[in-house]
Design goal:
Length: 392
């Protein structure tokens, strides 16, 4: 009996030990599979990030879209053999292959133009002119479909991302307003003619009746016809909300005056004519929040020769005077008082979103539309990621 019991106990111990060993082995295998799956996911994410980086206009190793109007265009990142497994055809003139900038992670990326169900190219832009971007088939920047295939120890993961370069802000005129506006002074100009090489714009677009735009003292207003007309008001607040989180200069003030600010210096031509466009290689994004703790907008006054280049975003009212000069776009959610004080101007565009307070432009204050200055504000910014999907 003792021998039999001892044999049974040994048998139980062996069975339990074997079962434990099998459980441990299974757990190790599960952990290993999970680890390799996660590495494959990280590789796929890295492939997406390389594609996003190289699609930027200012990339040191750019991927060029040589066929922007073709639904058949594709660019691949990776080795030729693996790229062929993802649809790359070296004999297809619409296909191009780029080596990855790294060799540690294993991924292959395919970049295509996104299309709708009918095969039309999709764009990311402001098709209806309200200041909000949406998918459409006519206006804006191409939407790219980025498919990244990551591999690790036999595991694979696929991520699909929709992304688009930021389209130029769709300013409809040199000066866009949404309140009663006065342009005054014989040396004041609002010029919609694009001397920077693009299409002319109206001098002024208003969200109110044309009769709410008045002049005093024979200022100059020029541009495409009608020079002053009514259109859907630009959603200035939506644009401010879109870009303010990217600001490299942010201020929270309440009814303040800032003197002699410098966020870049516009460069003038030889004659420094106030009605000629300036140029600038600097691109800053300046954001002023003038709201009180209760959320009520106040104002900011920029004076004393304040200058800048880029995007100027002001939540509240703006008072611009004393040789104020800007190259780029000025967006003000409230009213604008721009009263110059020297041969200075805004080159690009100025838009005011307030619908109740009056706007005033006068006293050597010149607003000169320039497509180059407008487009430059978004050209080198990171792409907008419209969707991100793990498709396994």
């Amino acid at each position: 009996m003792t021998v039999v019991v001892a044999i049974l106990i040994v048998a139980v111990i062996v069975i339990v030990g074997f079962s434990t060993l099998m459980m441990v082995s299974t757990d190790v295998q599960i952990a290993g599979n999970y680890g390799s799956t996660q590495k494959a996911l990280f590789s796929a994410e890295a492939g997406v990030n390389e594609a996003l980086s190289r699609l930027r206009a200012d990339s040191a190793n750019p991927i060029t879209d040589a066929h922007p109007t073709s639904a058949g265009w594709s660019a691949f990142i990776g080795t030729e053999v693996k790229a062929q497994g993802r649809g790359y055809d070296p004999t297809n003139a619409l296909h191009s292959l780029f080596s990855s900038l790294q060799s540690v992670l294993d991924y292959t990326v395919r970049i295509r133009h996104q299309t709708d169900s009918a095969g039309n190219l999709l764009y990311w832009g402001d098709a209806d002119g309200d200041g909000d971007y949406e998918r459409n088939t006519t206006t804006g920047s191409q939407i790219y479909l980025i498919s990244s295939y990551g591999l690790s120890s036999g595991s694979n993961r696929t991520i699909e991302v929709e992304a688009a370069r930021k389209p130029p802000i769709a300013v409809p005129a040199a000066l866009t307003v949404n309140a009663a506006t006065t342009i005054q002074g014989s040396s004041t100009s609002v010029i919609g003619n694009d001397t920077c090489g693009g299409a002319d714009k109206p001098g002024i677009v208003t969200g109110q009746a044309v009769s709410t735009v008045t002049t005093n003292g024979n200022p100059t207003i020029s541009g495409s016809t009608p020079i002053v007309h009514t259109d859907t008001p630009l959603n200035v607040q939506a644009l401010i909300d879109t870009y303010k989180t990217e600001a490299n200069f942010t201020y929270h003030v309440e009814g303040a005056t800032h003197t002699g600010m410098n966020w870049g210096t516009p460069v003038w031509g030889a004659d420094e004519d106030a009605t000629d466009p300036s140029t600038c290689s600097v691109r800053n994004l300046v954001y002023y929040n003038t709201k009180t703790t209760a959320g009520v907008p106040t104002d900011i006054s920029l004076t004393g020769g304040s200058t800048g280049c880029g995007l100027l975003l002001i939540e509240g009212d703006a008072i611009l005077h004393g040789d104020f000069s800007w190259n780029g776009i000025v967006l003000v959610s409230g009213s604008v008082t721009f009263t110059g004080g020297g041969n200075k101007n805004v080159t690009g565009a100025l838009a005011s979103g307030g619908s109740t307070d009056a706007d005033l432009v006068g006293g050597n204050a010149n607003i000169i539309y320039c497509s180059t200055a407008v487009a430059a504000q978004t050209a080198n910014r990171p792409l907008d990621v419209l969707s991100w999907k793990d498709v396994r």
